[in-house]
Amino acid sequence: MRRMLVAGVGNIFLGDDGFGVEVANRLAREPLPQWVRVADFGIRGIHLAYELADGGYDTTVLVDAVPRGGPPGTVYLIEPDTEALAAGAQADAHTMTPEAVFAAVHALGGNPGRVLIVGCEPSGTEERMGLSEPVEQAVGEAVRLVRELIGREGRV
């Protein structure tokens, strides 16, 4: 049976950095196939690394704020090379960027499987609660995109 993890990551106390958490929380309230696990990992990157190392997921969808230079609220679908990302980072429990998460997964002897990132261009990640208007509006688009990815995975 296929297994998919949808992991919301980010810090809700840093404005738009909480994008992934909000998307995961919305998806968790929707009916999804039994083979899909949705989880809010927030800033608990080391827990995400252990989940990826031990979980046996075919596909992992990370949902996060991803600054790439586009207009705030732009939603991206990225398929990163996790080995290349891991090679450029140190596993550090205090600063668990996605690169550090993949470094930790590889250090633990795990294989994250296929990884996709559903990212959103943040407007600001300063210390504050709540998403900016363009990022808040992008949450629905990201939820639809993740559901589309789940549908594609279910047909494989």
Q: What's the short version?
A:
This protein is 38% helix and 20% strand. The protein has five helices and five strands.
Topology:
Elements: E1 4-9, H1 19-28, E2 36-42, H2 45-54, E3 59-65, E4 75-78, H3 82-87, H4 98-107, E5 114-120, H5 133-155
Parallel strand pairs: 1-2, 1-3, 3-5
Antiparallel strand pairs: 4-5
Helix pairs in contact: 1-5, 2-4
- CATH-defined superfamily: HybD-like
Secondary structure: helix percent: 25-40%
Question: How many individual helices?
Answer: 5
CATH topology: Rossmann fold
Strand arrangement within the widest β-sheet reads 2-1-3-5-4
Instruction: Supply the helix-strand structural class.
Output: alpha/beta
Task: Kindly estimate the percentage of residues that lie in beta strands according to DSSP.
Answer: 15-25%
Shape summary = globular
Architecture, according to CATH? 3-Layer(aba) Sandwich
H/E element sequence: EHEHEEHHEH
- Multimeric state: single chain
Describe the structure.
By secondary structure, the protein is an alpha/beta fold. The protein has 5 helices and 5 strands, in the order E-H-E-H-E-E-H-H-E-H. It has one domain: Rossmann fold (3-Layer(aba) Sandwich). It has helices spanning 19-28, 45-54, 82-87, 98-107, 133-155, and strands at 4-9, 36-42, 59-65, 75-78, 114-120. Helix 1 (19-28) packs across helix 5 (133-155) and helix 2 (45-54) packs across helix 4.
List keywords for this structure.
single chain
